[in-house]
Specification:
Blueprint (H helix, E strand, L loop, with lengths): L2 H7 L14 H10 L7 E4 L10 E4 L6 E2 L8 E2 L3 E2 L11 E5 L5 E8 L2 E8 L20 E5 L3 H14 L3 E9 L2 E8 L5 H7 L3 H8 L1
Antiparallel strand pairs: 1-6, 2-5, 2-6, 3-4, 7-8, 7-10, 8-9, 10-11
C-alpha cells in the first residue's frame, strides 16, 4: 500500500482502492464458507467438461469494456449460455452451472445497510440470461424487494470478511433458493436508486 492510499483510507470512505479489485474465486469460496448458495463453477481452457445449454460463461474479473473506434457503441462481455463445443483451446476461462431463475436480485450494500430490487428479466428472451442486454423498447419490470433476514446477515458477514463497506450484490432466485453470483465493489446504485426511489445518493452523502 502506498503512502497516499494509506492516508486516504485513514479518512471516512466508501470502499478502498487497495482492495477494490477482489479475486472473484476467493469471494465465491468465502461466500460458500458462510453459508450462501453458489452455483458450481470451474476454470478451463477447453470445453471438454462443459454441459451444453446448462453451463454459462462470464468474466472472471471485473466487467471489461471494448472500445469500438469504428462505431458509436462500445462492447461489453455478457453472461452467455454455452450452446456449442469449441474445438480449439483458449485462455483459461470461468464456467458456471446455469441456474434457471424466477428473477434476479440486485442489492446495494452500504455500511451494514441493504437495499434490494427484483429484476424480472426471465420473461424476455433478450434479457433472459443477462439482464444487462437491456430491451429499451420493452424494459424489464423492476420492483423493491426484501431479502430474507438470514441472507442479509450472511451478506454483512461476507463484506466484513472482505473488508468492504460498500458494494452491489447479484443473486438469482430459484424456487426457495437464493444463489449468490458476485459482488461489484464499485457499488453500482444509480439505476436501483432511481427505479425504487431509495434516494441512495442521500444515504451516501449522510454516511460521508
Amino acid at each position: 500500500m502506498t503512502m497516499l492510499q494509506k492516508s486516504l483510507e485513514s479518512k471516512k470512505h466508501i470502499s478502498k482502492e487497495s482492495n477494490s479489485d477482489i479475486n472473484k474465486l476467493l469471494v465465491l469460496e468465502e461466500a460458500r464458507k458462510i453459508g450462501l448458495l453458489v452455483p458450481d463453477f470451474f476454470l478451463a481452457e477447453d470445453t471438454n467438461e462443459v454441459v451444453l445449454n446448462d453451463t454459462i460463461i462470464k468474466t472472471i474479473a471485473g466487467n471489461p469494456m471494448i472500445d469500438n473506434l469504428n462505431s458509436k457503441t462500445d462492447g461489453i462481455m455478457y453472461t452467455t449460455t454455452i450452446q456449442d463445443y469449441e474445438h480449439n483451446d483458449f485462455f483459461i476461462t470461468f464456467f458456471q452451472d446455469k441456474i434457471e431463475k424466477d428473477y434476479e436480485i440486485r442489492s446495494f450494500y452500504l455500511n451494514r445497510k441493504i437495499w434490494s430490487m427484483a429484476i424480472f428479466s426471465q420473461n424476455d428472451e433478450k434479457t433472459k440470461t443477462d439482464f444487462r442486454r437491456y430491451n429499451l423498447e420493452r424494459p424489464n419490470r423492476n420492483v423493491r424487494y426484501n431479502l430474507p433476514e438470514d441472507i442479509e446477515k450472511k451478506m454483512q458477514l461476507l463484506m466484513l470478511k472482505l473488508d468492504l463497506n460498500c458494494g452491489s450484490f447479484d443473486f438469482i432466485k430459484n424456487g426457495d433458493h437464493y444463489y449468490f453470483l458476485e459482488i461489484n465493489t464499485v457499488g453500482q446504485f444509480l439505476g436501483l436508486s432511481h427505479i425504487c426511489n431509495y434516494s441512495l445518493e442521500k444515504e451516501i452523502a449522510e454516511y460521508l
